[in-house]
Design brief:
Elements (H helix, E strand, L loop, with lengths): L9 E4 L1 H18 L5 E7 L3 H8 L7 E8 L12 E4 L9 E9 L3 H11 L5 E9 L12 E5 L5 E2 L15 E3 L4
Parallel strand pairs: 2-3, 2-5, 5-6, 6-7
Antiparallel strand pairs: 1-9, 3-4, 8-9
Helix pairs in contact: 1-2
The structure holds inosinic acid and magnesium ion.
């Protein structure tokens, strides 16, 4: 564990609140997408716990796929350059697509993915994130579905990492004096 200090993050959103909110989001998506060809595209790896819980509250048929994008090269500040490391494999032409990520921060990642996905000719693209940090937005993109809006703090847990650690934390927490 090089250069890694074990520290217990301060809780910002507890696991019961997260579970309740995800159930609500699943019900909302179920009713909004009834009768539609839905493909859920998960942005790895931050989405893992969120999408695993969310998908079990979506009570209609849908396909699921993953892509991997990154803008952080370690640390807490985005590099601003978004790289798509692994693209989707399901044909999303004429599909209703929901892109699922852990957090919408500056919006650069989502913007880049949306631009690329438009070329695949889906019927519609919507965004679903567990957390929304609207004060940090630099791109004209907003979440169609979000779990919680949070202040401008660097958070970890429930999929969100700091240098790839803390994704397994069952709650959303804040590190250090942030
Ligand atoms: P954006 O491109 O600035 O919107 O950043 C999106 C990505 O940055 C997310 O998918 C996260 O992986 C990461 N990110 C943004 N804010 C945080 C944070 O507070 N904690 C951990 N990761 C974050
Ligand atoms: Mg991420």
């Amino acid at each position: 564990m090089d250069n890694f200090e074990i520290e217990t993050p301060r809780q910002l959103v507890g696991k019961e609140k997260i579970a309740e909110r995800i159930e609500e989001l699943g019900k909302q998506i179920t009713s909004d997408y009834k009768g539609r060809d839905l493909t859920i595209v998960c942005i790895m790896k931050g989405c893992i716990p969120f999408v695993a819980d969310l998908m079990r509250h979506i009570d209609i048929p849908f396909k699921i796929d993953t892509i991997q994008a990154t803008s952080y090269h370690g640390g807490t500040e985005t590099s601003g350059t978004v790289i798509i490391l692994q693209d989707s494999t399901i044909d999303i032409k004429d599909q209703y697509v929901i892109l699922v990520d852990d957090i919408l921060d500056t919006g650069k990642t989502m913007m880049k993915i949306i631009e690329q996905f438009r070329g695949k000719k889906p019927k519609d693209i919507k965004i679903c994130v567990l957390l929304d940090k609207p004060s940090r937005r630099t791109e004209a993109v907003q979440a169609d579905y979000y779990g919680f809006q949070i202040p401008n703090k660097f958070v970890v847990g429930y999929g969100l990492d700091y240098n790839e650690y803390y994704r397994n934390l069952p709650y959303i927490g804040v590190l250090g004096s942030d």
